[in-house]
Amino acid sequence: MNSEQEKVPSFHMVAGRVPYSDQSEDEDYAPFEHRKVSKANSSLGTLIHLVKGSLGTGILAMPLAFKNGGLVFGLLGMVLVATIYAHCVHMLVGTAQKACKRSRIPVLGFAETAENVFANGPPGVRRFAGFAAAYIDYILLIVSFFSICVYLVFISTTLRDVLNYEFKLDWSIRIYILLTSAAIAIITQVRELKYLVPFSLIANTSIIVVFAITMVYVFKEPITFDDRRLWPEATNLPAFFGTAVYAIEGIGIVLPVENKMKHPQHFLHRFGVLNIAICSITILYNITGFFGYALYGEETKGSITLNLPNDQILAKSTQLLAAGAIIFTTGLYYYVPMEILWRKIGHRIPEARYNLAQAGIRFAILVANVGLAMLVPQLEPFIGFVGSIGSATLALMTPVVLDTIFRWPHDFGWMRWQLVKNAALGLFALLILGVGTYFSMLDIIAIYE
User: Fold this and answer.
1) Whose CA is closest to 200, among 47, 358, 93?
2) Is cis: bond before 409, omega within 30 of 0?
3) Other CB atoms closer than 10 Å to residue 212's CB: what's the count?
4) Secondary structure of residue 261 in the 3-state scheme
């Protein structure tokens, strides 16, 4: 946060003032009317950010998901995952907005929402309010770090395959990781969400062009379904769901971009920002996954661009364009961890050194990610690992827990169907978290055997 930015009231100054059961004065409080956001985003800008939060390496990894899930189950499973994810985002944002109204606070972030819900929840969970906030913060940091690692590996793998072939080089992927980090170091110094909109727009446009050209290659070749799996093996289900959840999930940026909207009421509308984004992404993902796996079968790689022929200029340019699109995305993925870190340490830094400290912290994060990417320069294990641990925890489990606590004990509808639904979603999240993490760790360990 720059020194001139307008401060938003912190939850830590107001937590606990409104008891859970005291809602008699809440009806006349409209949080949106009390928000004072500097450099606010339009609904279109928010849509661009939200799409970019999911539309990255995810769409290019969808053939890998269909390889694990099969053609028929892949289509149905992706729609199921998208529906569950959209519902969880609705729960998270809805809970945050209701918590703002109940506590008479204009805006709450992800961790602040968790702290507010726990602090004003049933007596048995109130003592965990601080832990809940810290847990969200650190999981967001971990997911952000691993996501950036995935980006580094994807970009470097693409550059290695194209440039080594074109210039008859024999450079390892670790050299390309170092070269990629030099470009990313510049993008990640952009701090304001509003100023990242052009980068997200360029990245979205590039990915759509990559998608279109990739589909040209896919449909140029005869596609046969004779030896393609239609349904998954039981052991491949965790890998499918882990990749699918990772591909569509962008929960970390949801509340930050919603909190920065000029018209936040447009976010959860039936034909609002969220539903338009999820529907568009799901259609693109299913097309890419279905036809990508149908063409390449068991030869499908972690990114469909890596299956394109290296000896054709259009294919090589497509791969480089995809890598460039991901480079422009890294600034957006830096926004969340930097907001978290700055909230924790910014008050300890003299105002005159804000800019220097921001630049130094951003560079230090990049160095740490480069080091981790060089330790495990493989794309597929990273995708499954991030999808299983971070995505399942943040995108699925956390919204369910917060919604349940906020509604407790009587606001679950007819025959407590909301509680039953939340329990089913929680079990699904635990399956992705437990089984998916186990198999992903086996894949990473196998690299060193």
Assistant:
1) 47
2) yes
3) 10
4) strand
